[in-house]
Specification:
By secondary structure, the protein is an alpha/beta fold. It has 11 helices and 8 strands. An 8-stranded parallel β-sheet has the order 6-5-4-3-2-1-8-7. The structure holds 6-hydroxymethylpterin-diphosphate. Residues 17, 19, 21, 24-26, 55, 58-60, 90, 109, 111, 132, 134, 180, 182-183, 210, 212, 252 line the site of 6-hydroxymethylpterin-diphosphate.
Amino acid sequence: MNAPLEQRFPRSSVMGVVNVTPDSFSDGGLNLSPADAVASARRMLAEGAAIVDIGGESTRPGAEAVSLDEELRRVVPVLEALQGVAVSIDTAKSGVAARALDLGAELVNDVTALRGDPDLAGVVADRDAFLCLMHMQGEPRTMQHAPRYGDVVAEVARFLDERLTFAVAQGIREEAICLDPGIGFGKTVEHNFELLRRLDELTAIGRPILVRISRKSSLGKIMGDPDAKTGTTAASVGAAVLAYERGASIFRVHDVREHVEALAAAGAVIAG
Ligand code: HH2
């Protein structure tokens, strides 16, 4: 049986993003060749990432779904080359998750929070893998059209609590699960920052919180560009440090070294 997730990924752990896709919004095309993806992953681990998250399907706003075969074609060569290192798989498909876990992945990062593929929970439970459950309003193709909430933090907390209960009912160990507010997934700039500001209401659920604010467009929009598609590294690090101070445990990022160093400094200040 795996150790509890919080033991494997203590605060603050960094997860490096490696998208093996042509269209991801910040690193699309950069890691499309397996050799480039593997090199990026190894560099991130050398820079202090606790794990690298390999994804073969973009979930950026407007993205179209990818077939099982195409997703496998993108990620399997990369996973094969990375056997023996700390890897997670960013997928909502049980077929991709199963193959990745067979090849040594430790964690399944499911942006649908087990609402996509009915077989995914069984795959995670059978292999006793770690799991990230993320909040999303709507689906990637249309989620940014008109996101609407009463109280965004209360609604996200209720959703994550309900998905956690569902996952445990499917036989997944509660200590193997972390939760993610899903910054930018059916949310306005204001929603995103309110979620980070009130992150303590999500940590109160009792599971570690994974945050991915790195390079999200909200960071560009607050700098005055309403059409921004990404944010800078500096903005990403600033937001991550404050999310850490408010209780986030795991940081899914593109710029690993900068986040590792900033979070180490933040940890030293907080530890006093
Ligand atoms: N965001 C993206 C993808 N996967 N997983 C979690 N847990 N949280 C996130 O916020 C999250 C995620 C989207 O960003 P990215 O991977 O950089 O791009 P794309 O989905 O376009 O490949």
